[in-house]
Design a protein that fits this description.
Helix content is about 80%, strand content about 0%. The protein has 16 helices and no strands.
């Protein structure tokens, strides 16, 4: 059994808050589509194209960043410095993107595209690859890793829930409301970032300096022969297609179906609070029922009420009740993603003798970035096809049906596929204690 010293709650909290340090990026993900179509006047088809192309580029840059982090050795660690550099750059660019100059339409599109790339493909890549890599470098304990994932997603959900009220705040702030909101959010992020810097400690990873050199080509051949890495990457891809669709469609669902901008914040509360509670409870119940079994059963109970929202999408109380139930059961799935990535990396090292945790994390980050891009693009392209016009006061009936199907239908379909893909991990969970003991021996830690 793995007898590594358990992490303190302060350390776990510091890692969890790295999600909250990306407030500006979350604002961009949540509101940039609506800002561009309804405030700047960019067509939704162009918006979808920008998001898709930039996120695909973003996914490619993740693999490069993974190699860079694995080759990094500083007194502060391998991943932590890149996490902080990425976060600071993200703060600056995520504010500027909401300050579109009075250019021609072509100029506005270029300006937005460049900043979108900087937010996600450059600075977002640095912090996005570094964060899951830290799970490997902070601890090798299976339950501590699940706890890190649980707390991190709880923190992320709290932030995203609060961001849900951003539309109300931006409107209340008047001219340049989204820009002013981003400045406030990024100021908070800066404070959080200082706490994270002084309380995150990497304990593993530097020993790679003593290991046999492996060429990049050899490693990537090994990487793509790791079935668990490929499965985790696909799960991340589907999870973020779902998230991208939801984030891309929420603005339009609230404005055109519920016809109540204030509902954005209320939907955030019922979408996240139950999930935060169940995510926090996940480590407790996982010890009783087993991590994988808990997640698969909870996923089934997430899909049912989520799908039933389609029955009466304009009934706000009904939708909120169904959403809250689905949200509660979705918590364990969110918590398991980072631990699965870490386990896939350990499996790869165990089987092939090659330790590159950041490259494995970059693979799941590729799934995250490309998935989010595909998701937001799907939402935008479907609405473009049915004739959505952001400058029109009223949309046609087909547009409204499309908004409902995109917002409720696609996420549940993605979750059903993810649940099926989790089944092969049963074998890895059964072997994991043996893998951990062997790796600790190789690292000279026992």
């Amino acid at each position: 059994m793995n007898k590594e010293k358990r992490l303190s709650n302060r350390e776990v909290l510091a890692y969890a808050l790295t999600s909250a340090a990306g407030l500006g990026g979350i604002l961009v993900t949540s509101f940039i589509s609506g800002y561009w179509t309804d405030y700047v006047g960019i067509s939704i088809a162009v918006v979808g194209t920008i998001m898709l192309l930039c996120r695909v580029t973003d996914g490619i840059s993740d693999l490069i960043m993974g190699v860079i982090i694995d080759k990094t050795h500083t007194k502060y660690g391998k991943a932590k410095p890149w996490l902080m550099i990425g976060a600071v750059g993200n703060m600056i660019c995520s504010s500027l993107i909401f300050k579109t100059p009075d250019f021609s339409m072509t100029g506005k599109i270029i300006y937005g595209t460049v900043l979108y790339i900087l937010v996600f493909a450059v600075f977002g890549t640095m912090s996005g690859v570094a964060s899951p890599t830290l799970v490997n470098l902070i601890t090798t304990d299976e339950h501590d890793r699940f706890k890190l994932g649980s707390w991190a997603f709880s923190a992320l959900f709290i932030v995203e829930m609060l961001v849900g009220f951003g539309l109300n705040v931006a409107v209340a702030l008047g001219n340049d409301g989204f820009f002013k909101l981003s400045l406030i959010a990024n100021g908070i992020s800066a404070i959080i970032l200082v706490f994270c810097w002084f309380n995150i400690k990497e304990r593993h990873g530097q020993e790679e300096l003593r290991r046999e050199k492996v060429t990049l080509k050899e490693f990537f051949v090994t990487l793509f022969n790791n079935k668990y890495f490929l499965l985790v990457t696909i799960v991340y891809l589907l999870t973020n297609i779902s998230a991208g669709v939801a984030m891309g469609a929420t603005f339009y669902y609230v404005i055109y179906i519920l016809k109540n901008p204030a509902a954005f914040g209320l939907l955030s509360v019922v979408s996240y609070v139950p999930c935060i509670i169940s995510t926090a409870l996940g480590p407790i119940y996982s010890k009783k029922f087993g991590i994988l079994k808990l997640v698969i059963v909870c996923n089934i109970f997430t899909i049912i009420p989520g799908t039933l929202c389609i029955v009466a999408p304009d009934k706000m109380l009904y939708v909120m009740v169904m959403t809250a139930i689905a949200s509660f059961f979705n918590g364990p799935m969110c918590a398991i993603l980072s631990p699965l990535n870490a386990m896939a990396a350990d499996y790869g090292e165990y089987k092939n003798g090659i330790a590159r945790p950041a490259v494995y994390s970059s693979g799941t980050s590729v799934g995250t970035k490309i998935g989010m891009g595909i998701g937001t693009a799907i939402a935008a392209f479907i609405l473009a096809v049915v004739g959505f016009d952001g400058m029109a006061e009223v949309q046609n009936g087909t547009v409204n049906v499309a908004i409902v199907l995109v917002y409720f239908g696609i996420p549940e379909l993605m979750l059903a596929i993810e649940t099926f893909l989790l089944v092969p991990f049963k074998k890895l969970f059964g072997e994991y204690d043996e893998i951990t003991v062997e790796l600790k021996k190789r690292h000279g830690e026992e």
